[in-house]
Write a structure and sequence with these properties.
This protein is α/β, with parallel strands linked by helices and about 350 residues long. The protein folds into two domains: about 270 residues, Alpha-Beta Barrel (TIM Barrel); about 60 residues. It is about 45% helix and about 15% strand. It contains 13 helices and nine strands. The chain has an eight-stranded parallel beta barrel with strand order 1-2-4-5-6-7-8-9, surrounded by seven helices. Helix 7 links the parallel strand 8 and strand 9. The N and C termini lie far apart (about 50 Å). The model has no long low-confidence stretch (mean pLDDT about 95).
């Protein structure tokens, strides 16, 4: 049984990106008000979760702050509570290595202390160099290889070696499409654990396409290790695609089985905020629409668009996903989904 576990709540970050994704595709116009953002951050601090991710960072032409997506780390850090608990680590996520590194200030106490960086598979070395540069600037860097299952051992070695060299705070494996099973959790943990410096934490980010987020999380934290672990979650599971491990499920489990002392009521208050005003009907959480692409190890957006835009039946979606070219599975494009649907209808 793992001895050192931290819980990272990503409700605002992953939830915000989920809302932005739905808005972009015309499925929802829900957003975070300024009041809700501050309320959620303060409630998370009251809950005693160890790490709070307050949003993401990526330069854009539009103001996306209503989705907790900010232009720079200074704007994101303006949401830090005025009275911060010294035991809480606040983080923000860089969507990719896109912000000019020279424009990012050295860390100082007015800024979030931790930064998570999504590694861009097509620009892996550039992404790792970006992480190292942020570490040199004094930030606690979390290395985030999205869709970790697609990485070869050689590519994982590159990530691990870079994490060791920069003395990363954490190195993650991420179930972006929600098809990992317990055997994958154990395999990836073992691979990382055998190669990472002992001080680097191993993190796990689950998605819920196959309704396995909770069981996968339990497999992760039940590993017998002295290594410090970080587990991501979101209130109501709010997030991209089928969403994430639910904070309101895992938090009492950690209290009851791992001697944690999290406060549950603030999390339930966040769930109330989200349930009453923020959750678009049937647009995240487990659904058959999100299950089908996970079965075929495919980007969830294919099925989401086929179902909600093209109004295809589950059987039709299943046939398209089962037979689509493998090279299209890891990256969704509007052109590809249109082509696949058009081709299927011609052949039906």
């Amino acid at each position: 049984m793992a001895k050192h576990i931290q819980l990272l709540d990503a409700t605002l970050r992953d939830g915000g990106q989920g809302l932005e994704d739905l808005f972009k595709n015309g499925f929802s116009n829900k957003t975070f008000t300024e009041e809700k953002k501050h309320n959620i951050i303060n409630l998370l601090q009251e809950s005693n979760v160890e790490i709070i991710e307050i949003g993401s960072i990526g330069p854009t032409n539009d103001d996306k702050s209503r989705f907790a997506i900010y232009q720079n780390i200074e704007q994101l850090s303006s949401y830090l509570p005025k009275e911060r608990d010294s035991k809480t680590l606040y983080t923000g996520l860089y969507i990719g290595p896109d912000t000019d590194i020279n424009l990012i200030p050295d860390w100082n106490p007015s800024l979030v202390e931790g930064v998570r960086v999504i590694l861009r598979y097509s620009e892996l070395q550039k992404s790792l160099d970006y992480c190292a540069a942020l570490s040199d600037k004094g930030y606690k860097v979390f290395v985030q290889p999205m869709l970790t299952m697609r990485y070869t051992d050689n590519e994982l070695n590159l990530i691990i070696d870079a994490s060791n060299k920069m003395n990363a705070y954490a190195c993650y494996f991420v179930d972006s499409y929600g098809y990992m099973q317990a055997k994958d959790i154990i395999r990836l943990f073992t691979y990382y654990n055998d190669r990472l410096n002992p001080a680097i934490k191993i993190g796990f980010h689950a998605h819920n396409n196959m309704n396995l987020a909770v069981s996968n999380a339990i497999s992760f934290i039940n590993i017998d290790t002295d290594r410090a672990l970080i587990l991501d979650s979101c209130a109501t599971g709010m997030g991209q695609g089928a969403g994430n491990l639910q904070t309101e499920i895992i938090l009492p489990y950690l209290n009851g089985n791992y001697g944690k002392n999290y406060n549950y009521n603030p999390i339930l208050d966040i769930c109330d905020i989200l349930e009453e005003e923020m959750i678009p009907d049937d647009l995240w959480g487990y659904s058959v629409t999100r299950l089908l692409p996970a079965i075929y190890k495919t980007a969830y957006k294919y099925a989401l668009i086929m179902r909600n835009k093209y109004k295809l039946s589950f059987k039709e979606i299943n046939e398209i996903l089962k037979n689509m070219p493998d090279e299209k599975r890891n990256r969704y494009t509007e052109e590809d989904v249109k082509l696949l649907v058009t081709q299927y209808k011609k052949e039906s």
